Each structure stands twice: as C-alpha cells, then as structure tokens.
C-alpha cells in the first residue's frame, strides 16, 4: 500500500503542485487585503487553506490526465514516467486521475459556489487541453490558450473567490495579467520536447513555426503583461500598495527583457537544452509575481 501511494505521489508530479497552490493562496490573500480589507477570522483561514489544497489536487489531476493522453509522447520524451515505464496501468491511472478531479471539486464546493464553478470551468479547460476529441494541445496556439485561461485567469479569480465575490473588475484584471504571461511563457517547455511532440501528433508553436520564429512569437509575453501592473494602479483598478505594485511591475519588465535576450540570442539552444534557463526564469518569474501580489496587498 505504501509503495502504491508513493507511486501515486510520483504520478501527481509533486514538484508542479506548488505554483498553483501558491497562486490560489496569493489570490486569496490579495482579496483579503483589497479594498475594503477584511478582518482575520477562522473562516478566512479555513477558506484559504481549502482553496490552496484544492488547487494542488486539481493540478495533480490535470497532470494525471495529461500523462494518460501523452503516453506516446512520453515514450520518447520521458520514458521513465510511471505509465510508459509500466509501473502504472492506464486503468489505474484513470482511476487515480478522476478520483483527484472529484476530490478537488468537493474541496471547492466546501469553500463556496463561486469557487466550485471556477474550479469546474478549470476542469473543463484541462480536459479540452489533454483529451480527445478536442485535445487542444495538438492545435497550436489553442494549447497556449487552454493553459493560460485555467492556470492564469481562473486560478487567480478562484483564489479571490475564497474570500470575496468575483463580480468586480479587480480579480479579473489580475487574472488577465497572469493569463497573458502564461499565454507565451507556457511554450518554453515545448522547445525541448519537439521530437516527442511530433511523434505524438502535437502541433506546438516550435513545431508549427520553427524554433526561431516561435521564440519571437512568445517573447512579448515575457514583458508586455507586466506593464498592466502600473497601468492598473494608474486607472484605480488595483487597490494594493501603489509603490509595491509599480516596483513589481517594472521589476518584472526588466527581468522579462533579460529572459527574452537569453531566448533570442540563440533560439536553437531552446531545442537542444532540456532545461533551458528561460524555463527556469519563467518558473521563478511566476513565483515572484504570485508572492509579489500577495505582499503588495498586505502592506
């Protein structure tokens, strides 16, 4: 039993669970500090914890579904994963995955109706991304869109929904910042996976347009979205600390410009290096954006 649980933990790809959990928590903290600010209470803490756990479980389910339908791709790119290595059957993988989806939705329902509906919408996008007949992962820019909406826009609004209503402009504006960033940044992992993606019939941006052109296509998304922070402050949409949000926005513009330089000075290296620095920077930029928003609304 313990060995199976360890295998399921590996199947969930635990190192990928922190960003969505942090994103959900950051969204909740942002709502907590947004005008009008809330008072700390047991309900606030419980909702934040339930939402954070829900986001991690939902991402684990998403990872499972993606591995099920990426079996042929993973035989080439990642043969040591649980399914292509033969350590988990497809039947068992389906059972674990759909159990995780159900658990995530139960956790979201325990928070409130808005959180449940947003989690349900994210689940639908996850299925569209990975599973036939839609399988947008094999449809170029649609893959990026069906990553950016649930993991960028909806995640932040769901986090906000743990403590406040979602009919205001502010949570959706914040979600768009994350969504636009992921719209391009999510492609960084596709460059090193070209061989396996081609074998699996996936038409990612590097496959459709070539490595160099794809790098130029995604480059603006490492810079432009972060101008939305000072713009949101100037328009009165973002109600966190003015100086902190401006510092975060312009700081990420500079950081993103450096990442673009790394990508464009030698685009071919994106396809030759399994963990290109741009992927690491993308990951760290997302973490910084999540933490930065939370701090800007607590100051």
TrEMBL record:
<dbReference type="InterPro" id="IPR050475">
    <property type="entry name" value="Prenyltransferase_related"/>
</dbReference>
<feature type="transmembrane region" description="Helical">
    <location>
        <begin position="243"/>
        <end position="261"/>
    </location>
</feature>
<dbReference type="GO" id="GO:0016765">
    <property type="term" value="F:transferase activity, transferring alkyl or aryl (other than methyl) groups"/>
</dbReference>
<keyword id="KW-0808">Transferase</keyword>
<keyword id="KW-1133">Transmembrane helix</keyword>
<feature type="transmembrane region" description="Helical">
    <location>
        <begin position="282"/>
        <end position="298"/>
    </location>
</feature>
<feature type="transmembrane region" description="Helical">
    <location>
        <begin position="15"/>
        <end position="35"/>
    </location>
</feature>
<feature type="transmembrane region" description="Helical">
    <location>
        <begin position="213"/>
        <end position="237"/>
    </location>
</feature>
<dbReference type="GO" id="GO:0016020">
    <property type="term" value="C:membrane"/>
</dbReference>
<keyword id="KW-0472">Membrane</keyword>
<feature type="transmembrane region" description="Helical">
    <location>
        <begin position="98"/>
        <end position="129"/>
    </location>
</feature>
<dbReference type="InterPro" id="IPR044878">
    <property type="entry name" value="UbiA_sf"/>
</dbReference>
<dbReference type="Pfam" id="PF01040">
    <property type="entry name" value="UbiA"/>
</dbReference>
<feature type="transmembrane region" description="Helical">
    <location>
        <begin position="42"/>
        <end position="61"/>
    </location>
</feature>
<dbReference type="InterPro" id="IPR000537">
    <property type="entry name" value="UbiA_prenyltransferase"/>
</dbReference>
<keyword id="KW-0812">Transmembrane</keyword>
<feature type="transmembrane region" description="Helical">
    <location>
        <begin position="141"/>
        <end position="160"/>
    </location>
</feature>
<protein>
    <submittedName>
        <fullName>UbiA family prenyltransferase</fullName>
    </submittedName>
</protein>
